[in-house]
Design goal:
340 residues; 2 strands; mainly alpha; 60% helix; two-stranded antiparallel ribbon
């Protein structure tokens, strides 16, 4: 089965209608990957891997994940203390991934938490960069400006491991962006639903990523413009696993959110602390001058693209930005944005 598509459906940017009647395969062949694009993916990714490896560690909050993992493997269930049904892990999927990895490999879960975090962080950035370059293939030289910023921020290197779900969050975000850039009208239904399923995993990676999940699903819908039945199928694919686990959580723990969300008052607002996090990220590393430069560049690119569209001139200008924010009790967050 395939999603409904018009006769001129070809790969298109998110939110942009198809503009060519050539088949997708032909379009891809006309846009080869330039060697410098491959280098701009491989070199920063390898550098981040080395820097993250040199700063490998596990923090106190990372150790909190290890106790329920050991309880699961001992047959006591996903609890912190035997006989007390309290969910101590914020990242549900990370907890179960560590339990599965420990069960399969018989390795120390602390070792796996550090190693998997580093590998997943690296994979996430590689996927995000590859997706952006693929989306803008043939657009000329692209600048992964955000990755260069990450290379200059030591705390990010530390939180590529740390034992937290930071690496899994980076990998999920990068994979979701990669899937979104590959979304096109006329693709197979199973591919569309698989992508929606991956998008829906956000709340299980970390509850606050539910906002990012909604953004990915909205972008996917905007590109595909499916029928009501197709929309319902996409949403069902996205919420199936999170909803099933929510039923389990309600029945097993008697709560609707992980216990840390209650202990840390996740539903409250603390704008002062948030401003402090921003200052701690941008201030010590003199990143404030970068923000207006990137903003000005983005405005110039948008104006250029609008002028080209108005004049019906071919070509696209692009800016790939990847950023992170790492601080105590927060996970590394990755964003990859492209201006078509």
């Amino acid at each position: 089965m395939r999603t409904p598509a018009g006769p001129a459906a070809v790969p298109s940017l998110p939110g942009q209608r198809a503009s060519s009647a050539r088949p997708p395969a032909a379009v891809e062949r006309l846009r080869p990957v330039h060697w410098w694009h491959a280098a701009l993916v491989a070199v920063p990714t390898a550098a981040l891997f080395v820097l993250g490896y040199r700063r490998r560690w596990i923090c106190d909050d990372g150790l909190i994940y290890l106790r329920p993992v050991r309880q699961i493997l001992a047959g006591n269930g996903p609890v912190f203390n035997v006989g007390e049904r309290a969910e101590s892990s914020t990242g549900t999927l990370w907890q179960w991934l560590l339990a599965l990895g420990t069960w399969v490999t018989s390795e120390d879960p602390a070792f796996l938490a550090v190693g998997l975090g580093l590998l997943l962080s690296t994979a996430g950035f590689a996927l995000a960069l590859t997706a952006t370059f693929r989306l803008h293939r043939g657009a000329g030289l692209l600048l992964p400006a955000g990755v260069f910023v990450l290379l200059a921020v030591p705390p990010f290197w530390s939180y590529m491991t740390s034992g937290l779900e930071s690496g899994l969050g980076a990998c999920w975000t990068g994979l979701s962006w990669w899937l979104l850039t590959g979304t096109r009208r006329g693709q197979e239904t199973r591919v569309t639903r698989a992508a929606a399923f991956v998008f829906g995993l956000g709340p299980l990676v970390r509850p606050d990523l539910a906002v990012v999940t909604a953004c990915f699903l909205a972008a996917q819908w905007w590109v595909l413009r499916p029928s009501r039945r197709g929309t319902a199928a996409m949403l069902a694919s996205a919420v199936a696993l999170p909803l099933a686990y929510e039923v389990f959580r309600a029945g097993y723990y008697g709560i609707l959110v992980p216990l840390p969300a209650i202990a840390k008052e996740a539903g409250a607002s603390d704008w002062g602390r948030g401003a402090g996090y921003v200052q701690e990220t941008l201030g010590p590393y003199w990143l404030w001058p970068v923000v207006p430069v990137l903003a000005a560049l983005a405005v110039l690119l948008v104006r250029r693209v609008r002028r080209e569209r108005r004049d019906r001139a071919p070509g696209r200008a692009s800016l790939a930005v990847a950023g992170s924010d790492s601080s105590k009790n927060t996970s590394g967050k990755i964003s990859a944005a492209a201006l078509p």
